[in-house]
Amino acid sequence: MFGIRDAEIVREVVRRGGFRAAAQSLGIAQSAVSSRVTLLEQRLGLLIFDREKRRVRLTPAGRRFVEQAERLIALRDRIVAELSPGNGLAGLIRIGVAETVVHSLLPTMLTRLHEAVPRVRFELSVETSPILAQKLRDDEIDVAVMMNQLVPADAVSYPLATFEMGWFAAPGLALAEAPLGPADLARQPVVAFSKGTLPHKEVERIFSAPEIAAPLLHGSASLSTMLHLVRDGFGIGTLPLAMAEEDLAAGRLVQLSVQASVRLAPLDFSLCHLPRQDSAVIRLMVEAARPEGFD
Question: Do 235 and 147 share a structural domain?
Answer without folding.
Answer: no
